[in-house]
């Protein structure tokens, strides 16, 4: 409650400090201090003022008493409020303390719940482990029982084994005595085997010498003749031809022409029979000699068939030619030679001589020599089995130069040389041999083949090289001091194989048809010149 609102306004103004200080009475009193005599009016005014002041003082006292009472009441209320506030503060403090305790208890309760959950989970895990342990324990007990049973069984078995062992020891002692006897026998057999191996090596060496001697007796230069069989598609008449093992007689009119060679094969003789005849010569290459086998004759007389077999891809080994059978013999023989310590490596190369150019058929017909003094170094491919030979021959066939002539629609226009380099090794002993299997280009008279242009130049080059080959072989047979190897690229390439201790075999292939009589006679005359053996 506001105390000022219960005091009259005039009293408030009268007792206002500014009013008191500015009142005339105070001024009078002040002036009265300076003067001793004042007017009565002024005294009356002062008395009046004093009365008012007294009244005012009484009012003030009443107001003061009321104010004191109110103040006292207010003070008591204030004290009560303070006590209430104090009580409230205490209660708030207690409430806060209680809330803190409640929160703490809640936190602890949560912790206890969490720990309780963990304990429950732990108990569950422990229970699971206990159950697993019980299960394992039961299994172990079962296994223990099994092991005890096995132990008892093994003890029984061990006892039996000990009995058997004692028996075995007795037998072993007996076996040891027999082993000593067998050891003595084995040592004796080993000594005999070593002696046999030594004799086998000596025998192989002797066989090599005898085989070479046999080939020399037969002649280092030999000529075989083969008559091509008639094929179902052939329509020409067969010429009259008589043959024996070493002679062939061809007839035209009343006068026969007779020729003699080292061997003559008729149209019914198989490639097996032919290869059987030359297999020892092929063996010479494995023994470290240089061997050349030629197929000579007019185009279409069966030269390529003799050397390679059919023109199509060969899938049946029975249809293969001399090249394939020679390589097959090499691998068959070297497998046997491995037993006495020989190891062999084979490297194959294929070249053709076309218009006096030497071409590498395994390197895209790359010309490797046109100079008579240049070394011939064709691509050499190592072969370790018969299968490795097939793609080499297939590529060579595709690359070889052929063309159509009057005598043959697929006439070979080049000399084809398959060369097999052979390297054998046994300790310090080494063999280096070369096997050349050569399919010569078709020999035919230019008038008969009716070739022109490039074919004419090819024919001239072929006939020149074949004539040079005949001259070289004839000079070798006569043992001339000068051998004309440089007269053609063919003889130059084969120089190292034809001369020295080289061995040469020529197949003269002839046609069985009467229409080819002149070419047949020309081929036989050429072959007989090489063989240096003419019978009239």
What keyword list fits this structure?
15 strands, Kinesin, single chain, 536 residues, alpha/beta, 10-stranded mixed beta sheet, 3-stranded antiparallel beta sheet, 2 domains, disordered N terminus, motor protein, 13 helices
Write up what this structure looks like.
The chain folds into 2 domains: 1-154; 219-531, Kinesin motor domain (Kinesin, 3-Layer(aba) Sandwich), CATH 3.40.850. It is built from 13 helices and 15 strands. The chain has helices at 9-14, 17-22, 24-34, 40-218, 271-286, 303-308, 322-337, 389-399, 446-449, 454-478, 489-493, 495-498, 517-531; strands at residues 221-227, 241-243, 247-252, 255-260, 263-265, 290-297, 343-354, 357-360, 366-369, 381-383, 402-403, 411-412, 415-426, 429-439, 503-510. The strands form 3 sheets. Strands 1, 5, 6, 7, 8, 9, 10, 13, 14 and 15 form a 10-stranded mixed beta sheet that branches. Strands 2-3-4 form a 3-stranded antiparallel beta sheet, with helices on one face. The chain has a two-stranded antiparallel ribbon with strand order 11-12. Strand 13 (415-426) and strand 14 form a beta hairpin. Helix 4 (40-218) packs across helix 5 (271-286), helix 5 crosses helix 7 (322-337) and helix 10 packs parallel to helix 13 (517-531). It starts with 8 loop residues before the first helix and ends in a 5-residue tail after the last helix. Belongs to the TRAFAC class myosin-kinesin ATPase superfamily. Kinesin family. One of its GO terms (cellular component) is microtubule.
């Amino acid at each position: 409650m506001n105390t000022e609102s219960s005091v009259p306004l005039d009293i408030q103004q009268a007792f206002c400090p500014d009013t008191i200080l500015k009142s005339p009475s105070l001024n009078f009193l002040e002036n009265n201090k300076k003067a001793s005599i004042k007017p009565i009016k002024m005294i009356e005014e002062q008395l009046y003022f004093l009365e008012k002041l007294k009244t005012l003082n009484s009012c003030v006292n009443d107001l003061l008493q009321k104010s004191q009472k109110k103040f006292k009441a207010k003070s008591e209320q204030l004290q009560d409020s303070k006590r209430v506030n104090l009580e409230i503060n205490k209660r708030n403090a207690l409430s806060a303390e209680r809330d803190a305790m409640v929160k703490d208890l809640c936190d602890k309760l949560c912790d206890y719940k969490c720990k309780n959950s963990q304990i429950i989970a732990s108990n569950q895990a422990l229970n699971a482990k206990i159950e697993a342990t019980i299960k394992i324990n039961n299994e172990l007990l079962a296994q223990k029982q099994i092991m005890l049973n096995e132990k008892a069984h093994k003890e029984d078995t061990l006892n039996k084994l000990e009995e058997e062992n004692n028996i075995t020891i007795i037998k072993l002692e007996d076996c040891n005595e027999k082993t000593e006897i067998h050891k003595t026998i084995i040592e004796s057999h080993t000594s005999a085997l070593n002696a046999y191996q030594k004799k086998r090596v000596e025998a192989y060496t002797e066989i090599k010498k005898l085989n070479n001697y046999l080939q020399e007796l037969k002649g280092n230069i030999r000529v075989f003749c083969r008559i091509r069989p008639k094929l179902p598609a052939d329509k020409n008449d067969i010429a009259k031809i008589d043959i024996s093992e070493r002679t062939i007689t061809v007839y035209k009119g009343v006068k026969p022409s007779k020729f003699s060679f080292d061997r003559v094969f008729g149209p019914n003789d198989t490639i097996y029979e032919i290869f059987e005849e030359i297999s020892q010569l092929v063996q010479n290459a494995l023994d470290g000699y240089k061997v050349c086998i030629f197929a000579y004759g007019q185009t279409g007389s069966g030269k390529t068939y003799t050397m390679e077999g059919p023109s199509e891809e060969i899938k049946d080994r029975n249809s293969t030619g001399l090249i394939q059978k020679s390589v097959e013999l090499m691998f068959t023989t070297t497998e046997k030679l491995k037993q006495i310590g020989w190891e062999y490596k084979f490297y194959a190369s294929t070249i053709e001589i076309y218009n006096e150019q030497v071409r590498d058929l395994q390197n895209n017909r790359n010309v490797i020599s046109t100079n008579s003094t240049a070394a011939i170094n064709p691509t050499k491919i190592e072969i370790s089995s018969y299968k490795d030979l097939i793609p080499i021959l297939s590529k060579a066939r595709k690359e070889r130069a052929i063309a159509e002539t009057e005598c043959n629609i697929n006439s070979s226009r080049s000399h084809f040389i398959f060369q097999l380099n052979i390297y054998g090794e046994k300790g310090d002993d080494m063999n280096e041999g070369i096997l050349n299997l050569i399919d010569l280009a078709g020999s035919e008279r230019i008038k008969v083949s009716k070739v022109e242009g490039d074919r004419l130049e090819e024919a001239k080059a072929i006939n020149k090289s074949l004539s040079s080959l005949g001259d070289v072989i004839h000079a070798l047979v006569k043992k001339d001091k000068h051998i004309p190897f440089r007269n053609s690229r063919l003889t130059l390439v084969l120089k190292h194989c034809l001369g020295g201790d080289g061995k040469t075999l020529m197949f003269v292939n002839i046609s069985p048809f009467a229409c080819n009589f002149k070419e047949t006679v020309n081929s036989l005359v050429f072959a007989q010149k090489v063989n240096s053996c003419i019978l009239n």
